[in-house]
Each structure stands twice: as C-alpha cells, then as structure tokens.
Amino acid sequence: MARVFLAFAFAYFFSALLRAVTATLAPVFSVELGLGAGALGLLAGAYFLGFSALQLPLGSALDRFGPKRVLMVLLAVAVLGCAGFGAARDLPQLLAARFLIGMGVSACLMAPLTSYRRRFGPTAQLRANSWMLMTGSLGMLSSTLPVQWLLPVLGWRGLFIAIAGLLLLAIAAIAWFVPGDEPPAAPAAAPASGGYRDVFRHPAFVRMAPFGFFVYGGMVAMQSLWIGPWLTQVAGHTAAEAARGLFVVNLSMLVAFLCWGLCMPRLVRAGWDAERIIGVGWPLGIVCLAANLWLGPSAAAIAWSAWCVLTSVVSLSQPAVAQAFPASLAGRALSAFNLVIFLGVFAVQWGIGLLLDVLRGLGWSPLQSYRLAFGLFFAACLTSFLWHVWHRSRSTWDAGGARG
C-alpha cells in the first residue's frame, strides 16, 4: 500500500507544481513576454481548461480501463506538453503547451482516488485523500522558493524540460509499483442508468457543485495565482519576498492536509461525516477572507496562509461525493466533480484577471481593483455555501418526513 501511494504521489507532486508555478513565474513572464493581468490569468487558466476538457471522458476511461493504464498514457501527454512549453516562443504557443500539460496531468489525482475507492475502506479513503492533497501542497511549495532558486541556473525553459524528464520517471514508478488493472470492461458493462446523467442529478452532487466551483475552485485559483500578485501589487513585496510568502502559504497548506489525514479517522469514529465538518469549519474561512480584504496592504503571507488553512476543509468534498456513489461509478463521480472544481479555477483565475485589467484601465488603484475583484469572489463563495446549507437541510427534512 505504501509503494502504491508513493508512486501515485510522486506523479501528483509534479501535477501540483505545474499548476502553481505560474504564480512564481508571473513576474518573469510580465517582464520577458510583456504579459498583463488578463494574459497571465489566461495562461494560468489554460492548464485548468485542458484539465477540465478531459474530465468527463476521463471518468468513463477510469471505470472502463482502470486507473493505472489511463494515468500512464496521460502522463506521456504531460511530458510532451512540458517539452513544448520549454520550447515555446510566444503566448499562443505557451497557451497550447499549457493546455496540453493540463490534459496530461488530469488523472494525477482522479486515478489514485479511483484506485483507493476500489481498494480502501471509507476511513482509509479520507486519510489517503488528505495525504494526496498534502503531497500536492508539497508540489505547490516546491513551485515557490525552490523554483526561484533554480531560475538563475536553469531558466524557466530549462525548468520545464527537467520536469518533463521527471514525469518520465513517474511513469516508470507507476508501471513498476502499482498493481495491474482488471481487464478492460466492455462499454455495455455499465448500465444505461449508471452514466453521467445520474451523477449530475444526484442530490449530493447538486448540493456540492456550486461549492466545488466557487469555494474549492476559488481556493485553488487564489493559491496558484492571485495571492502572488496581491503580495507584489497590494502589499508592496518584491518578487523574491512574494516567493517567500507563497512558500509560507503552501507550507501551511501542507501541514493542514497532514493534520486532516491524521484527524479524519477520529472524527469519523465520533460520528462526523465530511459534509458536517465542512458546514462547521468553512465559515471561519469566509470570515478570514473578509478580514484580509479589510486589512488591504497589511494582509501579507500570514493572513493568506490563515485563509487557505481555514478553507482547506473544502477538500473533504471530493471523498464526500465519491462515497455517495457505488464503487463502479467512482471514476465518473470523482471526475465530474473535479470538472466542476477546475472549471471554477479557470473561471476565477481568468475572471479576476480580466476585471483587474478593466478596473486598472479605468484608473482604479491596485488596492481598489483587488478589493472589488476579490469582493465579488467573496460574494460568490458565500452564495454557494448558502446553497449547500439549504439543500442539505431540505434533504434532512425530506428524510425525516419519509421516516415519519
């Protein structure tokens, strides 16, 4: 089990690093390529667009062919994308390569979670999910100061070429350590009623989808892009100081996911399910976000670390959705919810960038621009949480009425 986890985690490490590295490289791209906020948001979001484009076919492929086969094939696509990004000469080429990278790493979390859903019990799934996300935080941590240190040695192009080589090593580790999948199932093996239509209409999916789009997707969007520019443009940090700040943010997330993995078995035994924990814990995050907007330039890395840690409870939404479905639909349920999350990441990253460009064009200061853009994000998060609470309460009432 440890070898299987480590092989999957090694691949997911680079998926998370590639996701977040644009926050550290944003100043380099702005100077070297002349990219504005909108272009930076689009470049960062192209990863998530490619990632999202593959989620629905990915779910069917995971259920039919198995997680090991699918992950190895897609990682080969990520290798080509990283090599292409390192060789790109203009924004369209960078966008195409980053889109390809997003497609290639799109199974780096879903394949392991599908495997865990088939092999592990509910408590072990929650722990494995948290520790996979901890590995992702380690990858995002490595996208900050370590990348900043490597830039003078490798340059950003050499960095992506090196990652392509390490992804080849990840493919070899999965081939060697992960047990083989079951023989591919025939397409007709899945009943007509067990497809994506039933996934999207399921009550657990309906109540969690807006939350996944705005809150979970927004947390990833902020962590992987917009906290960095806030630190430089609002808080007045240098690029090196911002990289150190992002290091603190991602280190905090790593510790948070480690703690979730350690605490979840105890919480489950005490009768707490994932949605109940989210309902109690997440409101602290929205209060912290409001405080950061009020603090403005004083909201430095520690303040954003606190917001990320308090918001990390939303990571439990993925196993909560998976456990609402039978194991035979695990791949489709996880991939459909992941699609919602990463469409949210793309929308929040690009939407904030476009709004910032418009507001700056109207003469607004960086502080005013960021406060309005992040304030709209705050409103969307709060609305999606209220949707979740209302639907969960209605489900409870309906269940109580049915028992009565």
The gist of it:
The protein is mainly alpha-helical and 404 residues long. The chain is built from 16 helices and no strands.
Can you tell me about this structure?
It is a single chain. The protein is mostly helical and 404 residues long. It is 84% helix and 0% strand. It has 16 helices and no strands. Helix 4 packs antiparallel against helix 6 and helix 10 runs parallel beside helix 15. The chain is globular and about 55 Å long. The chain starts with a helix and ends with a helix. The C terminus is likely disordered.
Task: List its salient traits.
disordered C terminus, mainly alpha, 404 residues
Provide the fold topology:
Layout: H1 2-33, H2 37-53, H3 55-65, H4 67-87, H5 91-104, H6 110-119, H7 122-142, H8 145-177, H9 196-201, H10 203-234, H11 239-269, H12 274-295, H13 301-311, H14 317-323, H15 330-361, H16 366-403
Q: Which consecutive residue ranges, at least 5 long each, have pLDDT under 50?
A: 188-193, 399-404
The structure class reads mainly alpha
Distance between the termini: 45 Å
Structure summary, number of beta strands:
0
Large-scale geometry? globular
Give the H and E element order: HHHHHHHHHHHHHHHH
Oligomer: single chain
Strand content: under 5%
Task: Return Rg in Å.
Answer: 20 Å
> Helix amount, in percent?
over 70%
Number of helices: 16
Q: Main sheet, how many strands, which sense, barrel?
A: none
Mean pLDDT: 86
